[in-house]
Amino acid sequence: MRIGLREKLFLVSAGVLIVCGFTTYVYVSSELAADTQRRLHGDALARATLLARELDLRGGEIAPSETWDALADELAESARGRVTIFSADGRVAGDSALDLPAILELDAGAPSPEAAVALEGRAETASRFSPSALEPLVFGAAPLKRGGAPAGAVRVGLSLDPVADVRSLVASLTALGSAFGLVIAAVLSNLATRLASRGWRELGILARRMAGGDLEARARAAPGEAEVADLGRSLEQLAVGLRRSLRELVGERDLLSGILTGMREGVLLVDRDGKVALLNPALREMLLLRDEDVGKLPIEVIRDAALHDLLDAARRSGKPAQGEIEVGGIKPRKLLVRAELLEVEPGGLLVVFYDVTDLRRLETLRRDFVANASHELRTPVTSIRSAVETILAMPPQDAAMRERFFGIVERNAERLQHLIDDLLDLSKIESRELELSLEPTDVRAVAERTALLFSERAGRTGTKVVLDLPVDLPDARADARALERILFNLLDNAIKYCPGATVTLGAEADDAQITVRVTDTGPGIEPQHLDRLFERFYRVDTGRSRQLGGTGLGLSIVKHLSEAMGGAIFVTSTVGKGTRFSLHLPNADEAVMSGRASLPPAVVDG
Predict the structure, then answer these.
(1) What is the enclosing helix (H) or strand (E) of 207?
(2) pLDDT at position 335
(3) Is pTM beyond 0.85 here?
(4) Which CATH superfamily is domain 439-594 in?
């Protein structure tokens, strides 16, 4: 049920009147009742005092008798109240409300409190319930004296009906005033509503027109209606602001639509209910989707369980999730998918699809080329080495020349063999065919074992290998063979390209990782080479590297093995002072507790 303005004004006025009337009744009736009761006390005391004087004039001994009872009845008519005469010993000698037999049956040892005070010579009043009269009375008691000595007391009892009459009168007047006020409130609320609603109807029509989309509507305020005019102006300002906001929203919508249309990446928007809310043209073309797919579940549009799991992971964790999916059909695709929650719509997901089909195809071709080339080269290399061994075993004819040329053939054959081995290893690492056993590994033992392999070779080149390994170095989470291969390649490069230098193999640890460093005091590497140092076949000094038998794949293998173990490799160098390679591996204890090591990003420090 709707309550209008008129009813609201009347209800408010009625509430105020009722509260005020009740408060007035309580206050006024209490004050008047108290004043009336005070007057009754004084009146009762005055009447008792007058009767005491009259009894003093009559004389005679006061004792229970018909004479004193009759006198009490006589005096009650003139006093207009209940009159009780007490003897000096506190007995009732006469009572206008009791006959003589009843008086004689009363207990003479317990006069009322006010009578007891009067018998002591002092006037007293009291208000209490009278058991004999069965109603509350106001009593006034005065002493009787004969020759200056107490001879008894007289008491006058008055009814409290005047107090009730006062309360009833105040209640009647309050009710009458409240009823009259309610009538006036009804009339005034009706009049105020009529006066106030003249301009509001037009504003209501104006608001409905604006709600319907007519933001050009304007209000016309009647003269003297300042509040209505202010509200009309506020509505006009609201309409202007809404028009401006709508223009901005349309512009932003067109801009967003243009961006989504021009993107080569596919964009999928999932609302809070888990249904497709938007598909951009690139995704429609990429996966041959239709407009009818909007409003369906993602699994109904793109039937791929991996995508469904990825969206669930992003929604559960609240963090961006990324993965690759393969979509079959007329246009098979490999897509890199990134999903993250939308802040503007709780529960919604923004999913971006990157078409990596060509990229993955090129990577596959590259890996296949390396593997196929290595297999093709292995047969002629083996044949060359077999032929060389056979020729060297023949009877000598110009043995010196034969040994010189065939030694060159043998060295190149060995170099090709190393190249093939490196290519195969690199291909296995990149294709994840190389199985690593990641377990707690004693880095110190692996480092000492690897350094021992170079003791003879370092002595021939005048290179000094120094081990700086703490005794309490903790274990790393790594594969022992892969770690040995990494250290072997790093030490091999340092000894090969820095003859006569000092090569230091050191390590240190913190709570998260183990850092193994191979530092040399060689000529150093120029800065422009550092960011490409880990690329396959990249050489700083091509001629010298080939002369020393390098394949250009050693550092690339180091990088891939480091990342395969969850680590990273960095290089810093100063020309003329030397080079430092830093290998970061997860601490075995920390990796077990946290599930993964906290490592720096796997990038080359240039």
Answers:
(1) helix 200-211
(2) 87
(3) no
(4) Histidine kinase-like ATPase, C-terminal domain (3.30.565.10)
